[in-house]
Amino acid sequence: MKAIRIHTFGGPEALVYExxxxxxxxxxxVLVKNHAAGVNPIDWKTCSGGGAAPFIGDLxxxxxxxxSGTVIACGADVSxxxxxxxxxxxxxxxxxxxxxxxxxxxxxxxxSLLPAxxxxxxxxxxxxxxxxxxxxLFDKGQLLAKQxxxxxxxxxxxxxxxxxxxxxxxxxxxxxxSQANQLFLTQLGCDQVIDYxxxxxxxxxxxxxxxxxxxxxxxxxxALACLKESGTMVTLPSVTKDEVIAAGEERGLTxxxxxxxxxxxxxxxxxxxxxSKVLRLNVTTTYxxxxxxxxxxxxxxxxxxxxxxxxx
Length: 312
Hints:
The protein is of the alpha/beta class. The chain is built from ten helices and 15 strands. The strands form three sheets. Strands 3, 4, 5, 6, 7, 14 and 15 form a seven-stranded mixed β-sheet that branches. α7 packs parallel to α8. This is NADPH2:quinone reductase. It comes from Neptunomonas japonica JAMM 1380.
């Protein structure tokens, strides 16, 4: 079979589509014929030597942590799945998972069945961003109905799902985005959209219960002024989390970091919301797996609306 691999850390030019050994199925795993894989900032950052690179081990390395596909075999001790089932998942993070491949062996306790109404290609990009949004809003942020949430980078992969999930929860949702994304976010359910090119978010919003920070650094630090005294910020970028947490402590505010974790139960909830059209994934572009380098250049721009998907 074929997969994308890197033999040395570097830019998109380090990606090679080549023959690799077929995965060996172990107890508790299912073998999946891969249909598509989501492309995320953590993917290109890791391949360049940052991100999750310290957890990868020896090279060569096949990137990718989220996928959708069809079960073709089940290992021992697997229940709830059978050959022919369509599934999706976010697996093994931050260790290597190898989802940019034609076939993958994945832990059965980190995947979920896909309802028939879910699009198989789109579902490949739902799990990492969806779980990040879910865990930031509900596990860390403890968001409740009628509370007010501010989402920085609301048009991005995590952000646009967080907007929809917060609205589903019954919260008042405020998002930051460029002018080009204003209508997109309003249609998703944002009650207020702030153009960060035109005004400081702290001038436009005060007394929010929760900030979901998808930007980090100085932007996140400035957004602390939007929180009420009892509020919480959940900061997602790992590179700047320490400085954002320290700035929160100086102000007596709670700032919590988040490293997304696989969670099959939450995946099932996301799939059901997607099937019922409460939650939709906006796919910016799909690339064939042979063009992974182009997908990396796209996602590294930082200006994609929604998700980028590789078709396998």
